[in-house]
Design brief:
There is one protein chain. By secondary structure, this protein is of the alpha+beta class. It contains three helices and five strands; from the N terminus they run E-H-E-E-E-H-E-H. 31% of the residues lie in helices and 24% in strands. Strands 1, 2, 3, 4 and 5 form a five-stranded antiparallel beta sheet that branches. A hairpin with a 2-residue loop joins strand 2 and strand 3 (42-43). The protein is globular.
Length: 97
Amino acid sequence: MSRRRVGIASGVGLHARPAALLAKSAAAQPVSVTIAKVTDGDAGEPVDAASVLGLMGLGVEHGDEVELGAADSEEADSVLDELVALLSTDLDAEPAS
């Protein structure tokens, strides 16, 4: 399994809008992606990154670290890199006009 860790940049963590944007992006990927909250260096129980309720249930706040995972495949690394880049931005910010 390929894994990446990233800190959450969104000011409100993974709530409402940021969770919906991440879930939509994860669902559009060619591989299934999981996400787990990292506490004291250890990843917790992973949930489906395409599930808004699963994401919100993690209780991830601004600055928390999460671990993304995807089954090893040709696409896994690029999928995880794309989602890391997404989480590294403030998903709660208003989009530029």
